[in-house]
Design goal:
By secondary structure, this protein is mainly beta. 10% of the residues lie in helices and 39% in strands. Among the domains are: 30 residues, no CATH class; 123 residues, no CATH class.
Length: 425
Amino acid sequence: MNKLESLVYQVLKHNPKIKNRIRDVYQALLYLVPVPKEKSAYPVTVREGFFFGFHDKNPWSSDNKYLLANGYHRLQNTVPKIGDQIEIGFFKDDNFSSFQKITSTSCFNWQQGSMLQWIGKTGKFIFNDAGGEDNIAKIFDVEGKALGVLPKAIAAVSPDGAKALSYNFARLQRHYYPGYGYIHGHDPEIEAEAPSSHGISIIDIRNNLVSDLFSVRDIASFHPQKSMDRAFHFLTHCLFSPSGQRFLFLHRWVKDDNFTFTRMFSCDKNGQNLHLFPTHNMVSHIAWQDDSHLLAYARSTDDKDAYILFSDMSDEFRLIGTNNFNSDGHPSFPGNSSEWFVTDTYPDRFQISYLVLYNILKEKRFDLGLFRQPYLYRGEVRCDLHPRWNNNGTMICFDSAHTGKRSLCTINISDSLATGIINSF
């Protein structure tokens, strides 16, 4: 955002309906301006017809041999409906050039895909699907063998592959958070402001046992705020710490014509030692830096939006990159470093998204590439970059529609990291 856009955002950020209308008109006019569709400091490999999903999951197998992906055909720019399916599989061979389809699923959205992810360091992977009146999760291996079914859709798998976290995806889709839920499934308290029948559950994957940790009502009752009165509550965005001993989640409530408030919590994997982080009404995207620290784009208590590095189980925090970032993004850290994170930007006034590498210690930003997203990719069908690292921090995977078709893309920065010379375009 430039200074004028930042000013308008600060004035209108508490009135999202007007803010979004002004943004849409502004971007529609500027989309007529001819600008490059792609510009990068590194070669970009594009796999049209495929995508992965969110930034908080690693699509690479532990040996970096396989790259998980969702495949689609005619669905690239339409809201999912009953009967729609995507393919489940992975890329393999040199530079991940060939796709191996394993199966398909009808539970997906364009932001988070099917929650496709590896189960620990095994050759097994898991994804969500529809099953009767509810959503379920299915487990396959790279040979295409079906290995099991979990009774609930999953959001995150622990690093050791032993546990999975779950919440109600049908609730998200039907009330105020479409694009992150599923059209399949059931919420027994769909009209309740804060349900007591479901919230966050943990599943023992090996034994197929489900334990409920807390309900939406439990969390809504924890240090309640006045803005929660007559609001619609839900829980979302679970994420295990690197050791798997704790996890994060977001508590969101919506009121007054779709204005969303958010709080961020952490707790032990058994639901104990609940911690509420010192944020102010807004938290968007999260990444664990290590077991004790996490990065989130959030609003601090002084009402400023920024990347903030929080200490878990503490009220300590510090702002990150305030001279280098002035808008939201989707951060992630490589597993072998807490110094670097990769992130992106939402499309700017010209519909351009930036892929960004940032060094926390040196406070230095490197723009790895820009990608212009088609104007029709908006709302539920938008294509955010959602960058993700491989396991040794040498390659970055992201989704983009800059070619005119939603695609799974990769860039290799191994030579730059080895020499310490990072290129910006």
